[in-house]
Write a structure and sequence with these properties.
The chain is an alpha+beta fold. It has five helices and three strands, in the order H-E-E-E-H-H-H-H. The structure holds FE2/S2 (inorganic) cluster.
Length: 145
């Protein structure tokens, strides 16, 4: 049911933890399943994501997608990080079962929420970034990846 990459990131998640004094932090939940995701970003003066950590009360797919998403945004500029969509993360994991695709939205939304927090604190705007939702369950998508 799960690809090898999903199992690998679930069993050995990268970037688990928290950051003290993060440049940006975002928390989102999914009221339907009750899972919660928090992302911490450390961003340098050139708007490059130096470090990233995540913490979750989430299912295995949420852990795997967050692990992969954090790996994908590390070292990128905040603008480049916007390209790390849930679709891109799912593809990098060689796919998720359709019923689990919503879990990958948690990772994307938490990163966006952390970027939003960073942008607000620094008075900058990030192209394409919208005010984050705190609950993603209302916008779940049914697409398959
Ligand atoms: Fe809730 Fe996966 S079941 S995030």
């Amino acid at each position: 049911m799960y690809t090898e990459k999903v199992m690998d990131h679930f069993q050995h998640p990268r970037n688990v933890g928290e950051l003290e004094n993060p440049s940006g932090m975002g928390t989102v939940g999914n009221a339907k399943c009750g899972d919660i995701m928090r992302i911490y970003l450390d961003i340098d003066e050139n708007q490059v994501i130096r470090d990233v950590k995540f913490k979750t009360f989430g299912c295995g797919a949420a852990v795997a997608t967050s692990s992969m998403a954090t790996e994908m945004v590390k070292g990128k500029t905040v603008q480049e990080a916007m390209a790390v969509t849930n679709k891109a993360v799912c593809e990098a994991l060689d796919g998720l079962p359709p019923v689990k695709v919503h879990c990958s939205l948690l990772a994307e939304e938490a990163i966006h929420a952390a970027l939003w927090d960073y942008a607000q604190k620094n008075g900058i705007s990030i192209e394409g970034l919208e005010k984050p939702k705190s609950d993603i369950s209302e916008e779940e998508i049914e697409e398959e990846y």
